[in-house]
Design goal:
This protein is α+β, with helices and mostly antiparallel strands. It contains 14 helices and 23 strands. Strands 1, 2, 8, 9, 10, 11, 22 and 23 form an eight-stranded mixed β-sheet that branches. A four-stranded mixed β-sheet has the order 12-20-14-15. Helix 2 crosses helix 3 and helix 11 packs across helix 12.
């Protein structure tokens, strides 16, 4: 068979999954190459908060944080809702911390615990922890990348996504420096944080180890012979194709399928959805792996997937498409309502709102909480803003409907006016006591920290009283974390329809079905899965994999 190039490991995608595989391969003495379809490196993980979530880990030790595997497993068991198995959770917990230590101690990525940030469902769920399970990259000076700095993704949705740390947000809620001042300091110092910082750190480490990285290069086909994957066919931006051999294996780490509407409809049960992912995240892993006999599988019900809620920004273009923004509910002077004008969820905690808007009830017009709207007053805009508008700025054109009264706003939008007036009056009454008697808003520690105002009695609650009043229609917004993916075993090998490993084919991150975690979600798990299965895939293909609990070389 004729090849144009020859490598040991071919990584398809430059997010955490692909880069973790490439770094592990290079550190183990093999030749690795990364192909990225987009024109910048970093993938969806570069646009994320950069958090990794995992159980007990070595970064907890300096702070004296106590944790144990049994508690982490109990928490994951609750999240999985029966969609995961004990052996796969064991791999996530035990090999996850092994992988983290490999990337900090061997590869040299500087990470730290996010002190004071609790698990999503702490303290309500057995095994949840008050802190210690989130870790993030330390600020990374972009000039260390040299000319490559301009080839690594930072968020197109504003500096706040790429130049602040989760630690700083938590510290602000404990009386520390305002996160805006931290943002200005990082920008002045040329420091990238969050997902952008993690991507930059990995890419520098890859460059130092001789990993080849190509952008604007699409992998269009797997080369298969006698059922084994031997390499790939790639096409560059000029349309030139070439065949690249993968002596040890191919790792598919292309993310989800956000921009493949047929897949979103079929797997996520969404007729329409916006996305904040790059437009190249279009399910290529599924298309390519089908040739090898792999069939995508869901790892949970669509309503359990971390498909976010957000809104459309008609006047803003990102990646040449109309922008959608993720919304984290919980800002004071703001509620979420359905067409009856009623609140329907704890609108201080995004997983609850995201789940409840998807509720189906055949006796109540199908989906009683869809459509839904964000309703707020001028106080909210003045104090907190709604991106892309900062506090005190007018909303982006076409985002919202506004009116001088609640009744007028409801009639204009198509919400029941009496219902909305009654709902706001009741909510405003709760704000006087700081106790939400209907949905316990402000009682989830994670929501209080991530979206609340620490100066208030209840960080997530303040009344809607100042005209004009506004309504923004809620949209479903994906961010590369899908319902379905390629089935893999505990070494990252892709399985065919007979549950047999496809020789030479691996998947990592959101290209791989969440069979290890299953039903629920906690921020940071997606990034950890990218790191973990990129690492495990290469250990397996190099014959250096070890059982869970074994110390890596």
């Amino acid at each position: 068979m004729q090849w144009d190039e020859d490598f040991d490991v071919v990584c398809v995608g430059s997010g955490l999954g692909g880069m973790s595989a490439a770094l592990t391969a290079a550190e183990r003495g093999t030749r690795a190459i990364v192909f990225e379809k987009f024109d910048l490196l970093g993938g969806v993980s570069a646009l994320s908060s950069g958090q990794l979530w995992l159980g007990p880990n070595h970064l907890q030790e300096p702070d004296g944080i106590e944790d144990n595997d049994a508690d982490a497993d109990a928490y994951l068991t609750h999240l999985s809702q029966g969609f995961s198995t004990p052996d796969r959770r064991k791999v996530f917990i035990e090999r996850g911390r092994e992988a983290l230590q490999y990337f900090t101690d061997v590869i040299g990525i500087e990470m730290t615990v996010v002190n004071g940030l609790p698990d999503y469902y702490y303290p309500a769920v057995k095994g949840s922890a008050a802190q210690g399970r989130y870790v993030e990259v330390k600020p990374f000076k972009a000039d260390r990348l040299g000319p490559l700095a301009d080839k690594v993704l930072t968020s197109p949705y504003g500096d706040g996504y790429s130049y602040t740390m989760s630690n700083e947000l938590v510290q602000m809620h404990n009386g520390g420096e305002h996160v805006g001042a931290c943002l200005e300091r990082h920008l002045a110092a040329g420091e990238r944080c969050a997902g952008a910082g993690l991507a930059a750190a990995q890419i520098l480490a890859a460059q130092e180890r001789g990993v080849e990285m190509h952008t604007s290069t699409e992998v269009i086909e797997l080369v298969i012979e006698d059922g084994a994957v031997l390499g790939v066919v790639v096409r560059d931006e000029k349309g030139t194709t070439r065949r690249v051999r993968a002596r040890l294996g191919v790792v598919l780490a292309t993310g989800g399928y956000d921009w493949k509407s047929d897949f979103v409809r079929a797997f996520d049960a969404l007729p329409e959805a916006g996305s904040m992912a790059p437009p190249t995240v279009s399910g290529d892993h599924i298309t390519m792996a089908s040739k090898a006999g792999a069939i995508p599988v869901p790892s949970r019900a669509p309503s359990q997937s971390p498909i976010f809620i957000g809104y459309k920004v008609p006047a803003e273009e990102v990646y040449g498409k109309t922008s959608h923004r993720m919304w984290l509910p919980g800002t004071p002077h703001c509620i979420a309502v359905n067409k009856q004008g009623k609140r329907f969820a704890n609108d201080g905690f995004y997983p609850d709102v995201a789940t409840k808007v998807a509720r189906f009830d055949g006796q109540e017009d199908g989906q009683p909480n869809w459509p839904a709207w964000i309703v707020f007053d001028q106080n909210m805009l003045d104090k907190y803003g709604l991106m892309p508008s900062w506090p005190g700025q007018p909303l982006s054109e076409g985002m919202a409907v506004s009116a001088d009264s609640i009744a007028e706003l409801a009639e204009t939008v198509g919400i029941d006016a009496e219902g909305l007036e009654s709902t706001i009056a009741r909510f405003n009454g709760f704000c006087e006591t700081g106790v939400d008697e209907d949905f316990a808003r402000g009682t989830v520690p994670w929501g209080r920290i991530m979206t609340g105002d620490p100066a208030l009695q209840n960080p997530n609650m303040a009344p809607l009283v100042k005209a004009p009043f506004y309504a923004v229609k809620i949209e479903r917004v994906t961010m590369g974390v899908p319902t379905a993916g390629l089935p893999i075993d505990i070494d990252g090998q892709v399985l065919n329809a007979n549950d047999e490993p496809v020789p030479g084919l691996y998947a990592a991150g959101n290209s791989a079905a969440w069979l290890d975690i299953g039903g629920g979600y906690n921020s940071g798990i997606a990034n950890t899965r990218g790191m973990l299965y990129g690492y495990l895939s290469v250990l397996h293909m190099t014959g250096q994999h070890k059982p869970a609990g074994a110390q890596s070389a």
